[in-house]
Amino acid sequence: MDQWLATIPPLAIMLVVFGFVAVESLGVPLPGETVLIAATLVSLDGHISPWLVWGSAVVGAVAGDSIGYLIGHRFGIRLLTIGARRFPNRFGPERVHNAIGAMNRWGVLAVIGGRFVALLRVLVGPLAGTLRMPYRRFLVANSIGALLWAGAVVFVISSLGRAAIELIHRFTWIALLTVLVVVIVIAIVMVYRSRKAAANPVAAGSPTSPIDLADTATGSLQISDLFQADGSLSPLAAKAGLESTSEGIGGVPGLAGVAELANNTGLAGVTAAARQVLGPIGRTARRFPFTTGLFGVFLVVAIATGSLWYPVHRQPWYHDIAYGLPSFLNGQWYTLITGTFFSQLPIHYALVLVGLIVGVGWAESRFGSRRAFGIFAGGQIVAVVGSLFILLGARSFDSTWADHLATQYDVGPSGGMLACLAAAMITLRAPWRLRARFALFAFVTVSLIYIGTLADLEHFLAVLGVVLVAPFIQGFRRVKGGPSSREWRILAFAGLVILAAVEIAGTLLPSDDPSTSPNPGASTWIDLAIDVIVIALIANGVRLGYRLPWVIAVILGVFNVLEFAGLAIYAVVAVDFPPSLFEAMTNSSLWIALLVILWLGRRAYRVPWRRSRRVVSQQDARKNPLEILTEDGGGTLSWMTMWKANSYFVAADGDSFVAYQRHSGVAIALGDPIGPAAKRQQTIAEFVAECERIGLAPCFFSVSDETLDGAPDGWTHLQVAEDTIIDLPTLEMTGKKWQAIRSSLNRATRENISFRMTNLSAEPWAIVSQVRAISEEWVGDKALPEMGFTLGGVDEALDPHVKTALALDENNTVQGVLSWLPVYGPGDESAAEGGGGDGAEGGVEAEGAAEHPFVRGYTLDLMRRKDDGFKPVMEFLIASSCLFFQAEGALFVSLSGAPLARADDQSEATGIDAVLESVGTILEPLYGFQSLHNFKTKFNPRYERMSLLYRDEADLPKIALALTRAFLPNESLLGIARMGLQR
């Protein structure tokens, strides 16, 4: 195909690409993608600019899909009606109704992604038109998909040549198979839900998108009920989430509407619209003047010289502007500047744009324009000039590789851009700073060793230069104490994976390097097999910090280093050095760096191989946890640390402890550390060090701001709940905002509902059995089992230290029950974690505790009500409890925090907070966390945030799994997923 395209004029090539892509988008089985690939191959020879090929494909794709949209809009309803008559189970009205809603929710992503899959790209247009996706939305999504698809094909072909053709074809099939698997999984879930609903229609409840049959003409849904006579969506279909179209096709104005718009829009309107569109561009240019100016110079030079559409290395003046050893030997030192503002291929200008944004733009935002210019210029000079001196020195040793590079020319600003990127990375917080720099340095190192072009040498020197001068760059964050045990393990694990990958790639993939052999020798294959097999066996153990895999890795590294040393000696004395031995020497050289990492981080590999020995060590405590808690007090969740599911880490001084649970390789500390406040930071550091020693990921769940202040350097946090606190010394249930609470108290008096504060463990069996029955009835109504961790049950309420509030009718029948957990603290402290007040002393003396223990307040835990009992029993019990504790002198009560629920103020919400809010919305029908949080607002509390403290975002997936295990300890993940499907 490309040979034929090379014989026709460029305009004809553009028309062929446009026609094939457009007709393929209509559903005709033409090889549109193949023609695009062939035209791109022709552009590599300079016959046509790749930009023109790309533009022709984009226009053809948009035009073809738009015609397909119009066809679906015109004939889709008729086809749906025929399908509904012949295949009612597949094309029934309910399914079409749900499909309309799905198109509204996911249509944009489907249109963009469908362009990359061979069979789907012919369906998205007609399907979007049939289901009445608004045309403007479809046009935007289709244009984005066409730009990305055509750009990806042209870029890959321009970069890799013919070798990329097979890669693109494989990607298409992989994408198609992935979509097929996803469709099958969705179909299975839908059939499962359908059968479950048919077997138990009452439990199934109402559908997700209920259909009001009163809006239909016949009382049963028909296809005709979803569309109006003019083809637009009916009001009934609009309930699925789509807006009805008012004029034209899919919301596109007709000729009359366009004429009216043209007549009513003056110069002022056009100027205002242009200002609105171009305003962000101008603001960005003023914020990043160096980045914007640099890209402007690139663009002007590319257009003026024609290199934007024609490969610069084919220009007759290329050797006069490109830098390289030949240029400098000829005295053309100016090429250090001129070569910076060109790119080898037209498609590379897209990479320049990305590099300017990611590298130079980021550095300018961190260091300012002047320093960013200095980093860019310095990196480019070090990269170009440094490579020249290395090549001059290597040529004196008769290096084939150096002789090969000494004849090459290069252009481009990649050295400066990578220097800016490496410099910007030093401003990241730990541990991402170390990880990002390691990844970048590993990339340029592997590229230099296994590809070895002049550009690879320049990239390596640019990044190496920044690494060496990083401590002297303003904004550099020096890590106190060096990398942690976890970071050493991650670096070693990443190094092993990189070694295995590059050894496989270097052996199997062909190389243009004349110093290597196209047919690897037997020794190379043996080295590859040994290294890859051993790495596969030990890599995960190294990541977890086990001692034995570390020992094996060190032994393997020593053997490779010895092999490298022996081959290096042989290379010096041998007359003829076989290329296969050179490849083995190259592979072994990477082990030197890995061996250094393994040795420097040797203290990180002390995790016992046997699971039974991987436990947090215990110090000899002078006091038991209860004594520490009652003496020093704690936050509103402190009594939960006494529950039997917890384990304890006691600090070295024996005066502080951390209660934690271990799940899925994570140690979840519950609340704040218990002990003297002055020793909190040290206790956290000791707990973290002990967890990392045995390979556990530490985190702290529902901690106060005081604990956040004592967090280790580089740790981060996110809000998981809000504690609702009522200050008792100033509590007065007066005014309009307390009207609902006073009404519940008055109604309880009228209906002879009495309040009793007691210890449930001291109550007779009849009362306890009623409480258990009410709790079991509540659990039975939920789709998920009773939760644990920070949510106690009846067993926790039976603790003698826990207060229990009962609502009893005149027959001594329990109408509702609350359990209140004590919050201890020194008697002369009026405010602490979770505590409140304005300095007044108070508290309730605790029996059998330390010398001066006081209960400063209480935290609400168990809440249960009788289904057919006194309705406002919760309001009555909480209000009565507050008055009771106020009379006893307590400082506050905490209504506790509902997980994944918070007040309405989201001014500082992050992306992760948005994800948590979505999870809370999903769980709301199951547990009602947000509803519970809203209920507590009736008592006009103040709020204190409760946060999850963790090392970094990489720990969040395993922390989420561990929290699931902690809250649902008696339920398997498969069972949780099964119950989720039942919803």
From TrEMBL:
<keyword id="KW-0812">Transmembrane</keyword>
<feature type="domain" description="VTT">
    <location>
        <begin position="30"/>
        <end position="158"/>
    </location>
</feature>
<dbReference type="Pfam" id="PF09924">
    <property type="entry name" value="LPG_synthase_C"/>
</dbReference>
<feature type="transmembrane region" description="Helical">
    <location>
        <begin position="581"/>
        <end position="601"/>
    </location>
</feature>
<feature type="transmembrane region" description="Helical">
    <location>
        <begin position="51"/>
        <end position="71"/>
    </location>
</feature>
<feature type="transmembrane region" description="Helical">
    <location>
        <begin position="139"/>
        <end position="165"/>
    </location>
</feature>
<feature type="domain" description="Phosphatidylglycerol lysyltransferase C-terminal">
    <location>
        <begin position="629"/>
        <end position="828"/>
    </location>
</feature>
<keyword id="KW-1133">Transmembrane helix</keyword>
<feature type="transmembrane region" description="Helical">
    <location>
        <begin position="488"/>
        <end position="510"/>
    </location>
</feature>
<dbReference type="Pfam" id="PF09335">
    <property type="entry name" value="VTT_dom"/>
</dbReference>
<dbReference type="InterPro" id="IPR024320">
    <property type="entry name" value="LPG_synthase_C"/>
</dbReference>
<protein>
    <recommendedName>
        <fullName>Phosphatidylglycerol lysyltransferase C-terminal domain-containing protein</fullName>
    </recommendedName>
</protein>
<keyword id="KW-0472">Membrane</keyword>
<feature type="domain" description="Phosphatidylglycerol lysyltransferase C-terminal">
    <location>
        <begin position="856"/>
        <end position="949"/>
    </location>
</feature>
<feature type="transmembrane region" description="Helical">
    <location>
        <begin position="332"/>
        <end position="360"/>
    </location>
</feature>
<feature type="transmembrane region" description="Helical">
    <location>
        <begin position="171"/>
        <end position="192"/>
    </location>
</feature>
<feature type="transmembrane region" description="Helical">
    <location>
        <begin position="435"/>
        <end position="453"/>
    </location>
</feature>
<feature type="transmembrane region" description="Helical">
    <location>
        <begin position="459"/>
        <end position="476"/>
    </location>
</feature>
<feature type="transmembrane region" description="Helical">
    <location>
        <begin position="411"/>
        <end position="428"/>
    </location>
</feature>
<dbReference type="GO" id="GO:0055091">
    <property type="term" value="P:phospholipid homeostasis"/>
</dbReference>
<feature type="transmembrane region" description="Helical">
    <location>
        <begin position="372"/>
        <end position="391"/>
    </location>
</feature>
<feature type="transmembrane region" description="Helical">
    <location>
        <begin position="522"/>
        <end position="539"/>
    </location>
</feature>
<dbReference type="GO" id="GO:0005886">
    <property type="term" value="C:plasma membrane"/>
</dbReference>
<keyword id="KW-1003">Cell membrane</keyword>
<dbReference type="InterPro" id="IPR035952">
    <property type="entry name" value="Rhomboid-like_sf"/>
</dbReference>
<feature type="transmembrane region" description="Helical">
    <location>
        <begin position="293"/>
        <end position="312"/>
    </location>
</feature>
<dbReference type="GO" id="GO:0016755">
    <property type="term" value="F:aminoacyltransferase activity"/>
</dbReference>
<dbReference type="InterPro" id="IPR051211">
    <property type="entry name" value="PG_lysyltransferase"/>
</dbReference>
<feature type="transmembrane region" description="Helical">
    <location>
        <begin position="551"/>
        <end position="575"/>
    </location>
</feature>
<dbReference type="InterPro" id="IPR032816">
    <property type="entry name" value="VTT_dom"/>
</dbReference>
